C-alpha cells in the first residue's frame, strides 16, 4: 500500500512545536510529508525551538520554497490525503479564506479545498478580532477545519509536551490516521 501523502505548512504564528511534532508523528505513522515553511515560520521556529530552515526541512520527505508555485503540491492532480498548517498565522488564514494563492502555502491550501480534501488550520492568535472570526467562518464554509490548539485539561496533563501531543494526535485523527492516539473522554 502506498504511503499517504500529507502537506504540512508552518507559518510565523507562535506554536512551531505543533508543526515539528506533527512532522515527527507523521514520519512514525509512515506518511510521506511535503513541507512548506514561510520565512516568518523559519524565524519563529528558530526563536521558539532553536531550529533553522535546514533542520525543519530534515523532518519532511520533501520540502519546497514558499515561492515555488510550480511545485507538485500546487496542482489538484497531485494526490494527497490532506493538509495541515501548524501553526497557522492570521495572515495565512486570511489568504486561505480569500483564495489568494499568492504563494505555495496558500495555493496548496486552496488546492486541498477545491479537491475536497481535508484541510486543518491550527490557528494561533488571541484574542480574535472580527476579521479573524469571519475568515475562520469562510474557511469552515469551504470545508476546512479550524483547529485552534486549545489544550484539554480533563486528562490532567503533566507537561507542555503532553498538551502538544494531545492536540497533534487529535489532528492526526481528523486526517484519518488509524495510528493516532488522542486521549478520549471516558465520562465521570
From TrEMBL:
It catalyses: dimethylallyl phosphate + FMNH2 = prenylated FMNH2 + phosphate. Coiled coil: none annotated. It comes from the Bacteria. Keywords: Flavoprotein, FMN, Lyase, Prenyltransferase, Transferase. The keyword Isomerase does not apply. The keyword Flavoprotein applies. Dimethylallyl phosphate binds at residues 154, 170. Its EC number is 2.5.1.129. FMN binds at residues 12-14, 38, 89-92, 124. Residues 5-166 form the Flavoprotein domain. GO terms for molecular function: carboxy-lyase activity; flavin prenyltransferase activity. Flavin prenyltransferase that catalyzes the synthesis of the prenylated FMN cofactor (prenyl-FMN) for 4-hydroxy-3-polyprenylbenzoic acid decarboxylase UbiD. The prenyltransferase is metal-independent and links a dimethylallyl moiety from dimethylallyl monophosphate (DMAP) to the flavin N5 and C6 atoms of FMN. Belongs to the UbiX/PAD1 family. This is Flavin prenyltransferase UbiX. The gene is ubiX.
